Batch of 4 targets.
Target 1
Amino acid sequence: MFEKEVFAEPYKIKMVEKIRKITKAEREKLVREAGYNVFNLKSRDVYIDLLTDSGTGAMSDEQWSEMLKGDEAYAGSVSFEKLQKAIDDIMGFKYVLPTHQGRGAENVLFSVMVKKDDVIIGNMHFDTTKAHIEVRGAHAINCVTKEAFDTNSDYPFKGNIDTEKLEELIKEYGPERIPLVMITVTCNSGGGQPVSMENIKKTAAILKKYNIPMFFDAARFAENAYFIRTREDAYKNVPIIQIVREMFSYANGATMSCKKDAIVNIGGFVALNSPDLYQQCTQFCVIYEGFVTYGGLSGRDLAAIAQGLYDGIDYEYLKSRIYQTEYLGKKLREAGVPIIWPIGGHAVYVNAREFLPQIPKEEFTAQALVVQLYIEGGVRSVEIGTVLADRDPITGENRYPELDLVRLAIPRRTYTLSHMDVVVDAFEKVKKVKDKIRGLRFTYEPKVLRHFTARFEFVS
Ligand code: F0G
């Protein structure tokens, strides 16, 4: 039995937002009307919303007060200065370009660094990163450690780069075709799994040999640092900020979606240590995002990010954050729900094919579970499986990823442990009807990014 540890969230609640529980019959009707796609639901009809941890966190009173002080100058605002200072202090990068969110940062950086036929290696690229690579006619290659594919082992750093394979890939393609390597911390597409400091160091050393720059996709850098502290012996009790500084000291730059570990509702940036690269990126920031000191954000957004970066690396906050994710994961595991192990930082990932073996993968097993979870408990999750994987652009066939997953992503500082109990209860209810759950088929299938707008019906 997973016992609740006696410690609590390191904050008290100052403002609340009402959530509403509707009846199961209402949910059945609404999800049918939504074409069995939870992206089409209205959030007011969702009881507990675990669709994403992106931009859904609760800001602190300090962030809100920084927002009030936000300086709304078009150029050279005080808020921008604060952001620049925070990034320099925490990550050690002198040059910063704000962007509207993470994918904006990818667009600005890749506009300079990535061209047709290039090869961008990473542990596991996030969807938007992959898309920004492929749209330029370049190739996105995943090079995560093979341990990542064993979802039951205790291996503590399943986000690690496979350094042997990395070197083989560099030899195969040649360093001149590889403008950068991108390490995503934590590795969202691999289940929110961390990358160890040892692996970061080793990867950096290999890349140095071939003169290839190393970048971080830093969306969840603070959660990664917490895992380094708790799972890597050499970093036991080392202050988080020191771990973060060391992580970034090996890198040439980073892109960040601040909607995650900077705990804001919108924003991102590119951070660099090369004045030349910065200079080249500025023109694309101006074209796509906005002038170089605001990048599509308001001054108050910049100020909230600056403060949020410090909120995000607070040890007590991170401890309760990761504890909450583990609390949910361990309770689900105890209830017999198969999940990716170890539990990731921002989300619990349920292995739908193992949970609902009677639904063939052609009938979108994980999507069927997402729908039933909403019907039973009003919990909104997201499918990370066959629907998300789209069709092969050449053969037109469905792509079946190795795992069909349901992600329960937990917004930061938003829900309590009691809400997690409700999620566990929803799974208990799903378990009771498990054998009766039916698969789905498309009634509408868009050509690209189908998981956002597709519509389904039950296979009878
Ligand atoms: N990189 C990672 C690792 C991400 O998880 C995301 C977004 C992005 C980049 C893009 O950032 O949304 O600000 O443009 N992940 C969200 C999610 C959407 O639900 O996991 P963005």
Target 2
Amino acid sequence: MTAPVAQLERVSRLYPGGVHALHKVSLTIERGDLVAIAGPSGSGKSTLLNLLGTLDAPSSGIVRIDGQDVSTLSDNQTAALRARAIGFVFQQFHLAPGASALDNVADGLLYSGVRLCERRRRAAEALEQVGLADRALHRPHELSGGQKQRVAIARAVVGEPVLLLADEPTGALDSASGALVVQLLRDLNAAGSTVAVITHDRDLAASLPRRIHVRDGRLDTEVPA
Ligand code: ADP
Ligand code: MG
């Protein structure tokens, strides 16, 4: 039996200064899920993403990624798990401005031990997968917002992570470009990727097969119909 992609058990996050951003949250993300994590601004969505992405540690409770209890790992082991298992997509793309789309995507394999020529070969494949093969040598400032986000998604998936985490991926896009990005996430999911999308867009959340609502640091989970 394979372990769930991600599992939180009674996870709390108390920030210094006393903000209780998450309260005893339990959540399982299974292989093949396409899940929306929805809720108003300040409800704890990004805190949840940071814990799922091993960028932050809980104040109490257990976070397991691909079956590994993250609290048992050293910083280096956690970084290695993150590099292997998680792909990140952020609202503001976070592309390197001086680098081509191809090299931005190839950077997604920087910690994989793969040689540069092979990183570029796989990056070209990933760009093709997101429909941007003809923009490989463009730099970010030569791309539209939607194209930048598709490059960022290619970078996130080029290493074939077990979990793709997207934090408000359509937040900086017009609605047509946003719809293309959501369709791309659906296509990747149909091809086998496990995807969690953080959003405060109710329509986007409603369009995905599984939804988790965050309110004041607590979850109310909706199971698939
Ligand atoms: P969302 O992504 O849903 O908008 P966040 O997870 O960013 O919510 O924030 C949840 C709560 O935690 C908010 O009240 C926010 O102000 C607080 N918070 C977030 N990050 C920090 C931090 N690093 N230090 C202190 N408080 C924080
Ligand atoms: Mg947020």
Target 3
Amino acid sequence: MSPTRPSEVRALLAQLGFKPSRVLGQNFLIDANILRIMLDAADLSPRDAVLEIGPGLGVLTAPLLERAGRVVAIEKDDMLYAHLARTLAPSPTLALLHADALDCDLAGILAGGVNKVVANLPYSVGTRILVELCRAAARPERMAVTVQREVAERMAARPDTGDYGVLSVFVQIDYAVSLHKRIPRTCFFPAPQVESAIVVLARRPRPAPIHDDAAFYALVKGCFAHRRKQLGTLVRNDSALARADIDPKRRPETLSLDEWIRLCNALA
Ligand code: SAM
């Protein structure tokens, strides 16, 4: 069993001679209650194949192996990977990869049958990884991930709020997103500088009716780069705006998901 108590984590890190790196977001979970909440939020069964990015000391990986049928875990750090390989592998249901998740073919891993993602994501790359997972053709049906609290708020934000932006639209277009649980800094060792939150993403039953995915992402990104400008100025196509039934005086931050879809399809 992997350690969750602060004293055990500290002792293990000392034994390994390991100094956590801020660049790699190495803040280890030391709260058994938060661990249980994350695992429950993932709603796992032996039929599930789970992707974990950044297993660290294996605090999530070990219970994931107990609850799911298969786990793919990607760890970038040499020393942590070696520790996991010693303590968890070989296991017929674990694929432990020593790699930078940003260099991995995540879409390919998902296409290979992975249907859930459970991870305490490293701060620096968490958002990029989530967007990549949400955009994959075989996107996971459920994700329970820990991210920086501000990122969680942007993911779950509604139109007409300061947090609503590219990330909100990119993740909500195919997922119902909920900020499941706020996590104080003290639940990690070493304590990070910012608060975290568990976000749960449940894939919508049907994919969004977007005609051209690449055009959709480019439109949303391009418009939010000037979120205070009017859409008439941004898209310069009043007839498309009329077809989408959107007033050219509106600003990007006010558009609902349906309106983004209508606008993109009208522009196509
Ligand atoms: N899962 C562990 C836990 O909850 O205690 C560790 C989580 S810690 C926030 C993030 C982990 O991601 C670290 O183990 C770190 O080495 C790893 N990591 C950081 N960047 C990574 C990357 N680009 N690819 C894969 N793993 C990465």
Target 4
Amino acid sequence: MGAPVSYDVVDGIGVISIDNPPVNALSHAVRSGILDGIRTAADDASAAVVIRCEGRTFIAGADITEFGKPPKDPWLPEVVDAIEALDKPVVAAIHGTALGGGFEVALGSHYRIALKSAKVGLPEVKLGLLPGAGGTQRTPRLAGVQAALDLMTSGAPIPASSAEAAGLVDRVVDDGLDAAALAYARELVDEGAACRRTSELPPSSADPSIFAEYKRQLERRAHGQLAPQKIVDCVEAASRLPFPEGSIVEREAFMACMASPQSAGLRHMFFAEREAAKINGLDKSTPLREVAKVGVIGAGTMGSGIAMNFANAGMQVYLLEVNDDALGRGLETIAKNYAGGVKRGKMSEEQALATRERITGTTDYADLADADLVVEAVFEDLGLKQDIFERLDEVCKPGAILATNTSYQDVNKIAAATSRPADVIGLHFFSPAHIMKLLEVVRGDATADDVLATCMKLAKAIRKIPVVSGVCYGFIGNRMLQHYGREANLCLIEGATPETIDTAMQQWGMAMGPMRVFDLAGLDVGYKARQGLPPEERGDPRAFVIPDALVEMGRLGQKTGAGLYTYDPDTRDYRFDAESLEVIETQAKELGIERREIDASEIVDRLIFSLINEGMRIVEEGIAQRPSDIDVVYVYGYGFPAWRGGPMFYADTVGLDEVYKRVCEFRDRFGEENWAPAPLLERLAGEGRSLAEWASDPSS
Ligand code: 3HC
Ligand code: NAI
């Protein structure tokens, strides 16, 4: 492979070209190459310099694969400072995404020109980091304190036009970036324009009180996270200190973040998400099936959201229901969701209308005859689903992919209702289906490779994060959730309150405590499922008598204004009330349970270690391809804090021997049935190995 950075002189302008696929990350070779280019330009006859990139994007940031390894000179701050120090105008020519260290290279340049389609941003916070090459000091000097704080603490990229308005980009062009950048450089030379060094601008002024207030807001929006708080410290430093001193504050903060377990967790998630898209043993050249027309069966909570995903991605959708009333309700929900999108400025009225019009309601299976994919989302009833798949088998064209959104049912049994089980797969969306990022792709025993590969690709097209799961009750996510939910309910009857449980879990980092989740999903869902089972198959009554009693009083959760909590009908504010407490105490008494104080650490350990223990079984059985896939499921589907890296990464952070010890303690206290340690956990703890070590060679 040739050098990733080249230097040429084009019509008197020095051009530093970076070519380091796929995203021109700032590897050691790229940093060295840019520095060499700058040094060459310093001594040659070029009048100005353009920094540009080959391929699909400008530099997308530091090379994340180098993090955690011994640093090699030159460091990025040194490279950026050398760019800025050059005595000839330097123009950064931005296309694609200029992110993180990439945008810092652009900020070190004296002028910035961007394609209209480009985006710029400082997404380090998403990796538990902050811009470490002058970004925290230069951004507020160019865009002001408020814009800098927003850009860096959200990590969200902004379009070139917004960057231009904020003073972060000087010129935006529709196309022909390379020629425009050369012309811009020539123009600057002709005008005798100065080498505009951002570091020489005075500190950006700001009312000092805004920083404390911003930190308070972050404590709510990014509770417990280190990097956002440190970003505020750095911007505060930029508001009062000269650049060199502010840079020292930045460096110390960057190193502290880099060494934090939070950043380790978030960096793990970055790669875990990308790894999850890869299917072990599947040939990369597997041909894909074309999907342009999609059928969705059932226009309830899930079906209506599922239909929107495909319409949003430009596909034609036929939404099928049992009758016109049910169909009307589904289409109305969809219309409301799009109207909400327009109201929140997510799309224009015209876009909403055009997208909605891609969804056609029907009650006639004949409309699905030429669908490339059908997703079934009717009631959770195996017999009903099998009937529908039998019907699809008769109606759909050969080669159509037949998918079920079932939460728990056996995909193999559903596939067996057809004469083409190879075309059947599970596509398990999460509620609300048009918003939640996770998609569990359930591979049946007979699912064809090309069906699986097509669905993984399709997931990306509809902006989901897919994770492959094997067939088992509840697949990866809900199978583990049963254990988490059981422990939450047991803590409740043993002595905790909904509030103490939710506070403990939210303080620990879960997006929402389990009691609020139960109320949101509806306590009646589990109740109905249990009613369908003979009493001896319903499990441990201590884990469900409270929700069942609440349901029988009409307290189904948020939808009836009360469940474990009561809800304000207007604001949805929730509070724990005396009636709920009475139910809890009565049910405990009836089962002869003497309620006791349960502290937050017991609540957290019981809920999280029960998840981990089941996760261990899931990886050992091969239901998940790798432990990190479980992390992706929990972070994107269940509100697990990304900065803890998902449950399986967290297990390694705690240490498997410690997890094993605690699981054994719980087994001794609460019994073998719920707490038998997973064989893999027991083995790895005994061998002193981590899950990550095991994952690199699962046959060992
Ligand atoms: N370093 C190393 N590898 C990277 C990378 C990076 N910064 N960014 C992306 N990659 C790799 C991915 O792992 C993936 O590898 P794979 O094909 O082997 O799985 C490949 O590049 C393609 O990435 P995506 O699948 O994500 O491609 P997309 O086209 O969907 O997205 C992107 C492109 C928007 C650039 C996205 O990859 C991205 O957001 N990257 C991270 C950007 C980032 O966080 N930059 C800041 C880094 S920290 C920093 O700069 C510190 C500095 O301040 C000192
Ligand atoms: P829902 O009760 O809101 O909607 C089901 C819809 O299916 C109803 O509109 C009903 O009229 C329709 N339907 C029933 N029989 C039909 C038939 N024969 N032909 C066409 N339509 C028919 O149920 P929900 O919540 O949308 O669940 C659907 C499926 O998605 C279930 O398998 C469920 O387990 C699964 N799921 C549900 C999640 C949730 O949070 N609600 C999350 C993920 C999966």
